[in-house]
Amino acid sequence: MSARISVDLQSPVPPYEQIRVQISTLAASGVLSPGDRLPTIRMLAADLGVAPGTVARAYKELESDGIVTAMRRKGTVIAPQPPGTQHPRPTPRELTAAVENLLTLARRHGISDPELLRLLGTALRSSPGDTEAPATTLEQ
């Protein structure tokens, strides 16, 4: 799992926040399922090249947000989702392909994961929320 998380030390976003956002996004998108174990604090810190306290802070904030649960002897796991928050249907293949294309394009242009998440967040906040939007070039 730590291969899916990265930290951009040049970013103005603190490393613990980058970790928190990425794990939260992985859990919300279903990439991480309830019960999935996260790496130990020391292991993830070593993989990312950050201090253990940085990962501990991210995990603590994720726990206070209800995203993860710290369990003695089992480590930190993705918490069960409250009823009604599960996706009622599978993600369409076109959407998965579009996300993969976006990720490939972002990597090609040197966009970091935290920056891509910021861009997506901005786009989501500015979107009118219309579920019947016109077809994009990928859908046509």
Q: Would you spell out the secondary-structure blueprint of this structure?
A:
Blueprint: H1 15-28, H2 41-48, H3 52-64, E1 68-71, E2 75-78, H4 93-108, H5 113-126
Folded structure, characterized:
- It holds the Pfam family GntR.
- Keywords: DNA-binding, Transcription, Transcription regulation.
- Residues 13-81 form the HTH gntR-type domain.
- InterPro entries: Tscrpt_reg_HTH_GntR (IPR000524), WH-like_DNA-bd_sf (IPR036388), WH_DNA-bd_sf (IPR036390).
- Residues 73-92 are annotated as: Disordered.
- It is built from five helices and two strands, in the order H-H-H-E-E-H-H.
- The protein has 140 residues and is mainly alpha-helical.
- The protein has a single domain (2-126), classed as Winged helix-like DNA-binding domain superfamily/Winged helix DNA-binding domain (Arc Repressor Mutant, subunit A, Orthogonal Bundle), CATH 1.10.10.
- A two-stranded antiparallel ribbon has the order 1-2.
- Strand 1 and strand 2 form a beta hairpin.
